[in-house]
Amino acid sequence: MKITGKFANAEAYDRNTGRFSRMLARPFIEFAGVEDGERLLDVGCGTGAVAFTAAALTRRGEIVGIDPSAAFIEHARSRTSDPRISFDVGNALTLPYPDGSFSKCLSLLVIQFIPDVRRAISEMRRVTRTGGTVAACVWSRDDDPLHTIFWDSAAELDPAAKGARDIRAYAQGQLSALWVESGFSSMEETVLVIAPEFESFDGYWKPLVRGQGPSSSYLEGLAPDKQEALRLRVRERVLGKGPDRPFTLGAKAWSVRGLR
Question: What kind of architecture, by CATH, is found in domain 10-259?
Answer without folding.
Answer: 3-Layer(aba) Sandwich (3.40)
